[in-house]
User: Fold NAD(+)--dinitrogen-reductase ADP-D-ribosyltransferase from Candidatus Accumulibacter aalborgensis.
Amino acid sequence: MKTEIGVAPDEALGCDKSTLLCRGDDKATLPREARLPINRCNLPAVALGSLSYQKSPTPLLLDGVAELHRNLFDRLYAAAPGARAGVFRDYLTVHFRLERPDEMGFTGLRKSRAKANYVRLIRGWSFDSDSRDGAVLKGWVESRFGLMPRYHGQPMFDPAGDAYRRYLEMRSHGLYGTSALEAQFDLVYGFCQLELALRHPGARHVTLYRGVNRMADHEILAKGAGGRHVILLNNLSSFTCSRERAGEFGDYILAVDVPLTKIFFHCGLLPGVLQGEDEFLVIGGVVDVTLSTL
Assistant:
């Protein structure tokens, strides 16, 4: 039983959650080097990034977002389903002065970064997740959820290394001169979670797919029978709800039961932002996946 985006109730997930690999084993825990000791949500990174969380997700609440923007969420709940996207866009445009950067104090001669907003960065991610826009989005996940990026153009296993320093430079350059981009992403995540809850009441997971050419490019924590693997995802990754579309990006397909609470954005959330590929932007952590061929 599936909904329009492939959401399945727990009994239709297609895998026995009582037999998850490494249940109770240290491989099910988010490695220390992949998490921060603090974050800005209601669960620590070690919990929300664990394999147990994939099995039994609970809501992820960003600190202060619902309280500071109560008017937005009240309006969204009161709006008709087809009108909610417009309400959301209008609120962010006015609240962050996206069309009037001078009202936010911008006085520079170059306005390229002043025009950077949530729409442009999500589109930038779809073109190149290892770009400056991708660094800003991965940095937002790191800040809010405490999940450190593991790859940005190259592996980043050493926070003191050149690769991580390069990512930090790209992230800071991407944020400079913008209208509170990370606060905009807070509301994008909140809107996405509200929409998923209203469209699919009671659902907790969606089966998503990712095409890969080499499993060696992923951090494999454990292997099991039947193509089962426990892997550590990057802190933000692209998936699709179409198995056929995933096959266009690699010779092998990863199938993952993703908690709805780990979805930051998806192609149907705001019409015109992401087009094609049925793309979902998924917050990372340790996950149980099934690897298969085309």
Notes: Residues 136 and 254 are 26 Å apart (CA to CA).
